[in-house]
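ok trying again, last paste got cut off:
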Amino acid sequence: MCEKTDRLHIILVAKEQSLFAELAKMFAKEQRLNVTFIGSNREAMEVVKHNKVDVAIIADDLPDSTGLQLVKDLVQENPFINCALVSALYPDEFHEITEGYGVFLQLPPIPGPDTAEKILTHLDKIYQLSL
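nice, full thing came through this time. structure:
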């Protein structure tokens, strides 16, 4: 998964790949991104334990946990991982429950192309990649 070190490695974690289809389509246009779909908390943790992962984009509900629980698990394994989480919570509530976990963006329940642009803008600021 992670041969080249100059690429940003992103995992998209959701029960159904279709949730992040628009994001994946937009990310595929970016040369410096390496994107992998993951289907569960357990699988995501295995990938992060054995590979360099920079960013996790996570659905709010997974087959084996909540998205928030995966964020907590990932940050415990790798405190430098940046996470974006799908959530229908009000922004203040979302900020309250995710504070301190490296969540850089709250995503809408159905992320589209505009969400992909927001993610890319944030990643550009975080990693200064000029994506």
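cool. The domain at 8-127 is CATH 3.40.50.2300 (Rossmann fold). The chain has five helices and five strands.
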